[in-house]
Design brief:
Low-confidence stretches: none
Distance between the termini: 34 Å
CATH topology of the largest domain: L,D-transpeptidase catalytic domain-like
Mean pLDDT: 89
Order of helices and strands: EHHEEEEEEHEEEEHEEEHHE
Strand order of the largest sheet: 5-4-3-12-7-8-9-11
Radius of gyration: 20 Å
CATH superfamily of the largest domain: L,D-transpeptidase catalytic domain-like
Number of helices: 6
Largest sheet: 8 strands, mixed
CATH architecture of the largest domain: Beta Barrel
Structural class: alpha+beta
CATH class of the largest domain: Mainly Beta
Amino acid sequence: MGETYTVKVQSYDDTLNRYAETNGVGFREVLAANPGVNPWVPGQGKEVLIPTEYILPRGERVGIVINLAEMRMFYYPAGGKTVVTFPIGIGREGWQTPIVTTTVTKVVKDPVWTPPASIRAEHAAMGDPLPSSVPPGPDNPLGPWALRLAAPGYLIHGSNKELGVGMRVSHGCMRMYNGDVVALAAMVPVGTPVRIINSPVKVGWKAGSMYVEVHEALEEQRSIHVSEAVVADAIHIANRISATPVPIDWVQAKSAAVQRSGLPVRVSAAQVATR
């Protein structure tokens, strides 16, 4: 779904993050799609690729599906054939966002943040004590809306530090750009299922051709990194279950595994016409 496009950096003062937020992608996504570009000083006139083409995650296309590896949410509205997607920030190492199937239990406008004892203790140890609760406003890290989940202690919410969208900076909750969480809160009813997965490799089909999308593994999983063998296995499985298997261009498949750009790469070999 979607398609990639490029934009030009308008000013020497611009950062990649500005173009990530403006174009609905996360910081890590835009970094992976633009290797070699300085994220803080990309340079006026520099062309930046905006990676807004995606392979949908495997599994049932119902409710909210969050793929931690790509730091992205996919929302499938009930009764329709559409999908809406948003970048997210997720839990940092030691505070990982859980892989879980749950539901939305409440959609809250102007949420009050009540930091749990573990977070208060962490901040106190750093000399930055937190109050027992933080009311709505510019100091509230939950932003203008929050979706509470049946998984205890975890929320989908906005942020007062939107640079963290597309990064691993939270205590396990999922952060969104404030404009995105406003849109999501208006669409998602209580009871919506939420499925959180971790799939660095996705395979999909478009117009009869196979594509693979490879993301960098999360840091604590780098020891079982996304290897060429892992990508090859995913391709073999997709071909086996397909009604119309295709020949594979293994050079392209290897390139996707090595680059891990997060961009869909066509891996089915071009068919040679015969008479």
